[in-house]
From TrEMBL, chain A:
<feature type="domain" description="Aminotransferase class V">
    <location>
        <begin position="24"/>
        <end position="392"/>
    </location>
</feature>
<dbReference type="InterPro" id="IPR020578">
    <property type="entry name" value="Aminotrans_V_PyrdxlP_BS"/>
</dbReference>
<dbReference type="InterPro" id="IPR015422">
    <property type="entry name" value="PyrdxlP-dep_Trfase_small"/>
</dbReference>
<dbReference type="InterPro" id="IPR015424">
    <property type="entry name" value="PyrdxlP-dep_Trfase"/>
</dbReference>
<dbReference type="InterPro" id="IPR015421">
    <property type="entry name" value="PyrdxlP-dep_Trfase_major"/>
</dbReference>
<keyword id="KW-0808">Transferase</keyword>
<dbReference type="InterPro" id="IPR000192">
    <property type="entry name" value="Aminotrans_V_dom"/>
</dbReference>
<keyword id="KW-0663">Pyridoxal phosphate</keyword>
<dbReference type="GO" id="GO:0031071">
    <property type="term" value="F:cysteine desulfurase activity"/>
</dbReference>
From TrEMBL, chain B:
<dbReference type="Pfam" id="PF13462">
    <property type="entry name" value="Thioredoxin_4"/>
</dbReference>
<dbReference type="InterPro" id="IPR036249">
    <property type="entry name" value="Thioredoxin-like_sf"/>
</dbReference>
<dbReference type="GO" id="GO:0016853">
    <property type="term" value="F:isomerase activity"/>
</dbReference>
<keyword id="KW-1133">Transmembrane helix</keyword>
<keyword id="KW-0812">Transmembrane</keyword>
<protein>
    <submittedName>
        <fullName>Protein-disulfide isomerase</fullName>
    </submittedName>
</protein>
<feature type="domain" description="Thioredoxin-like fold">
    <location>
        <begin position="155"/>
        <end position="294"/>
    </location>
</feature>
<dbReference type="InterPro" id="IPR012336">
    <property type="entry name" value="Thioredoxin-like_fold"/>
</dbReference>
<feature type="transmembrane region" description="Helical">
    <location>
        <begin position="73"/>
        <end position="97"/>
    </location>
</feature>
Amino acid sequence: MDLTRVRQDFPFFQKKPDQKTGAYFDNACQTLRPRQVIEAVTRYYQESSACSGRSMHHLAAEVTRQYDQARATLARFLGAAKKEEIVFTRNTTEGINLVAHALDWNAGDVVLLTDKEHNSNLIPWQMLARRAGVELRVVPSRPDNTFDMDAYSRLLDRKVRLVSFGFTSNLDGVTLPAAEIIKKAHQVGALVLLDAAQTAPHQRIHVRALDVDFLALSGHKMLGPSGTGVLYGKYALLEKLQPFQVGGDTVASSTYTTCEFLPPPEKFEAGLQDYAGIIGLGVAAQYLMNLGFDAIQKQEWLLNRALTSQLLEIPGLHLIGPSDPALRGGIVSFFIEGIDSHRIALMLDQMAGVMVRSGQHCVHSWFHARQIAGCVRASMYFYNTLDEVSLLVDSLKKIRKVL
Amino acid sequence: MLCIVSFIVLSILGIFSASNRQLAREALDCVLRRVTLRPCNTGFDEKIKAKILGVVITRSEAGARFLNRHFELLSWVAFFLLLGSSVMAVRGVYLFYVTGSCNGLNNSAFCVFDPTGQNNQVSTLGQTCSLSDNPERGVTLKNVDLSDWPVLNAGASNQIVMVGCYACDYTRKVYPSIRALVQKYRPEFRFGEYQVKEQTDLLTRVGYCVYHADPEKYWAMNDVLFTTEKANLDDPSYVHQLLASLGLDANQIETCASDPQTQTRVEKLLNEIRRTNFPGTPTIFINGVPMVGPKPYRVYAIQLEGLFYWMK
Ligand SMILES: Cc1ncc(COP(=O)(O)O)c(C=O)c1O
């Protein structure tokens, strides 16, 4: 990967000489956006800001074409069988909520989660448990925070209706052995939903190869516009799901008392959509495919190896998750004994413009169970550099020396 | 403690920047929690501490270490310094309001609200200058015989005594305020004319004669002399015309003014004025308190009628 050329695509790096250089290491929250995506969004508003589908005029036809094209690109991005398996959402959270509301649950059904789910893949199920008498089971991780296949197998039985796992953890970057998990789930008749918010930006996902039933992702974590997302679902399953949010654009026709729903994906895309955002998301997915996930992963591993080895020189610093950087994608989470993680994050920003995330990263359950107050998370992406890694480490060393 | 200091500082900085405004809001929330003895849950203290440490550490690691170790103590110190300077600032604003100087009556030390020191300027013999410190020391009406000074509303409970000169800028500046005060609150008003710039006391003598001919016309004449162009004051024909226009016998007044007896009386009057030790004009005594230089109207009014003069 030609890093210099790639960085030129990102307006963020085109700093004026008097601006703070710093380093952006909060990519797990949102990534930076390349010019191509920004231009696609701007182009929509400047040239064709109209509705898709509903109207007959030529502008609407153009938006419909671009919207469909974005759906087709996302289908290719995920290796879906057809573009109708792609439902546009606002984010991963919405995709998960959709499944939680739209499956026909029976009291006594079991939903299986891991012990380090993001709140977005925990709270919807807690609500469902209250609403529909569904039971939640939590698969504990191994001591190094990697997936415990044995524990999973023990908890898996015919009562399990859905396995809903975070494909890649936003806490420590660990990716689950999804193919094996899915195979085992299917053997007991369970469906599998993968929260791929932290996977889609970093690894090639092939939903058909995985044979996954549902998969949710967020556009803003993979170079796309804010508030865009996708729920992938096998078409046959989507057809069986109840609608989630309903209203305009979800039905073919209605009387005062009845309605006839459109087929998926329209059935789930209620109301006017974020056309600009979705067109931009299509461009983002294409950008990542052009770059190639091999190159992306290679750069992230390089950065993670460098950061991990340098961090381990700092006394009192503990890494969260496995020590092997190759297992943690672009994420390095750590805490330093006796120093509050928020203080570290604020100081890094103030000192050197280094932007990291601190706290419990919406995985409160994991932190509470282990009585750890919080951690600092540096989440890297392919456009980060070794110089930026050094800036982070040097600043941290100073903080350690002083506090 | 830090949140109180920060709130005040950030509120001021917030005038200029939105991000500081947001921090000030957090600080306020924290202050409110602190005063109701709840913990500050916005993490505001922590945020500010980290930000300050982040700045200091780039300049001096030792400094950052010291700050980190003694942060609580240093924020108390900052609090008291802020408290002290706030008290001083409030006192300054109050004193400026009441006396026209941030540092107290007639004090000409620097004051932001009156940066050029206008409120303490006087015309002294032959020049214009700013007051030295405590110019009112020794300035008094004690043992000064005021009986020969022109007087309005004699016997009223409040008293304004003014030493001024027709040709002096600062007296001219303040004269309308004093007239307005006299009209509104009707105190006893005595006026001593002292030509600090001119070598002659001609106008003083003319004034003396006019006052004794018709006191009411004397005050009318003063109103004109303080507002007419200064050049006219040196022009005998202008004075002649003025006297005539006031319905006085100009020739008779002029004869009176050059009468040696008048000269003696006026010399006695000027001597009494000198006995006040006034440092320059205008010097205005309100109920005996000397006020040197042209103060804003409110300063005189407060001295005369109290802080709530505007309610009367
Ligand atoms: C693993 C994981 N799941 C779900 C989410 C929620 O994503 P969103 O807020 O885009 O819905 C996140 C966001 O950080 C995440 O990291």
